[in-house]
TrEMBL record:
Intracellular or extracellular location(s): Cytoplasm
Superkingdom of the organism of origin: Bacteria
Keyword Ubl conjugation set for record: no
Active-site residues per Swiss-Prot or TrEMBL entry: D95, K159, K188
Pathway recorded for this protein: Carbohydrate degradation; 2-deoxy-D-ribose 1-phosphate degradation; D-glyceraldehyde 3-phosphate and acetaldehyde from 2-deoxy-alpha-D-ribose 1-phosphate: step 2/2
Summary of the function given for this chain in its UniProt record: Catalyzes a reversible aldol reaction between acetaldehyde and D-glyceraldehyde 3-phosphate to generate 2-deoxy-D-ribose 5-phosphate.
EC number(s) on file: 4.1.2.4
Assigned protein family: Belongs to the DeoC/FbaB aldolase family. DeoC type 1 subfamily.
Protein name: Deoxyribose-phosphate aldolase
Gene name of the encoded protein: deoC
Chief place where the protein resides: cytoplasm
Length: 241
């Protein structure tokens, strides 16, 4: 017997539709897949967010997009403008990349100010923010300091990766981030969670969200384990995320 219910796992999944090669037809069918599997959110290319938010309205699946993606090197002003546009287009959750260069340079005042600007804007609009560290480029001391800053600023999630760096989520990083983040800060895994067993493993560590493109495979297996009927939807957006 499985020790979870379907929505325990489906509502962990942020279905990723971020590869630049996805067509409008791919994006639309990916949104339909996310609705069918009752995931937490769709994280989509920013230009298609408005359409995505309209399609998701009333479904219980949230519209999300990226800010400063994937390298984090945009100026604070540009990240702020991206966030304002995303909120205007119906974004409910913003996945924001830190300035990795400044993290590695020890520019903690810059990093804290930038996260604070976008977090304040997001929360003022009644929406939520996930702060992406891109752990594959960082040392543990960087990750710990980012967790401390994000806790102080009351961000909603700290997130391991973009899925487009040299590595994705690791169990050690998830444990570290959970240990050093405040109780009110959730943890999101991204990159490398490609099957149900791994999804359940990150859940056991304390992650509440997971960025994924293999949604149909993971949640199809969950439905099979739980004795639920299969869902017939063509999967799109696979990127190795």
């Amino acid at each position: 017997m499985a020790d979870y219910q379907y929505h325990d796992v489906s509502k962990m999944v942020d279905h990723s539709l971020l590869p630049p090669t996805l067509t409008e037809a791919d994006l639309d069918s990916g949104i339909d897949l996310a609705i069918a599997y009752e995931v937490a959110s769709v994280c989509i290319l920013p230009y298609y967010l408005k359409r995505c938010a309209a399609k998701l309205s009333g479904t219980g699946v949230k519209a999300s997009t990226t800010i400063g993606f994937p390298h984090g090197g945009h100026t604070t002003a540009i990240k702020k403008a991206e966030a304002e546009q995303a909120i205007q287009d119906g974004c409910e959750e913003l996945d924001f990349v830190v300035n990795i260069s400044q993290v590695l340079s020890g520019g903690w005042d810059y990093v804290q100010n930038e996260i604070g600007v976008v977090t304040e804007l997001t929360h003022a609009a009644g929406q939520k923010i996930k702060v992406i560290f891109e752990n594959c480029y960082l040392q543990d001391e960087h990750k710990i300091r980012l967790c401390e800053i994000c806790t102080e600023l009351k961000v909603d999630w700290v997130k391991t990766s973009t899925g487009y760096g040299t590595g994705g989520a690791t169990m050690d990083d998830l444990r570290l981030m959970r240990q050093h983040s405040g109780e009110n800060v959730q943890v999101k895994a991204a990159g490398g969670v490609r099957d149900l067993a791994t999804l359940l493993e990150v859940r056991a560590i304390g992650a509440t969200r997971c960025g994924a493109s293999r949604t149909a495979e993971m949640l199809g297996e969950a439905r099979k384990q739980l004795g639920l009927p299969a869902i017939e939807v063509t999967a799109t957006g696979s990127s190795g995320y």
